[in-house]
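A.,

Following up on our hallway conversation. Structure tokens first:
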């Protein structure tokens, strides 16, 4: 079974290697795509249908309904240091979400004004790079556009 992963934000899709954090750029947590978001207030959306298994103001994980796959979305780099300021979640941990549903309102421009990168890694957890196909990078995307497919 394949899972299509959607972009949580609008911006420019780029390789994870361009993320200024080795945990993501070296794919320590898994393969995926980075999205360099457009500026201004925006809503990050769910990348897949599933359950909100982890939820922090700056990051979240959605686990697919069958439990076979999980996708991490990290809104900016080192944004945990913002202690939730500027992030407004619209869901709760354990809630079932649909791909494209609004999850967190945030402002990438404010993140950058605080001295952090606003780039958003979108990572397939617990799979190898070979599980990804149809990868979009170096292209403009809108929130809800396909980013990559995770194959079983």
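Then the amino acids I'd put at each of the 152 positions:
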């Amino acid at each position: 079974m394949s899972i299509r992963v959607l972009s949580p934000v609008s911006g420019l899709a780029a390789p994870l290697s361009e993320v200024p954090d080795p945990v993501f750029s070296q794919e320590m947590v898994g393969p995926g795509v980075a999205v360099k978001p457009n500026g201004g207030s925006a809503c990050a959306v769910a990348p897949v249908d599933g359950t909100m298994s982890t939820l922090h103001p700056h990051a979240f994980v959605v686990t697919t309904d069958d439990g076979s796959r999980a996708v991490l979305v990290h809104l900016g780099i080192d944004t945990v240091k913002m202690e939730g300021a500027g992030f407004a979640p619209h869901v709760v941990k354990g809630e079932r979400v649909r791909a494209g549903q609004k999850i967190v309102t945030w402002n990438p421009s404010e993140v950058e004004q605080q001295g952090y990168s606003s780039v958003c890694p979108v990572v397939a957890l617990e799979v190898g790079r070979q599980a990804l196909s149809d990868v979009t990078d170096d292209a403009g995307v809108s929130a809800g556009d396909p980013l990559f497919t995770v194959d079983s």
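The radius of gyration is 14 Å. Curious whether your intuition agrees with the design.

B.
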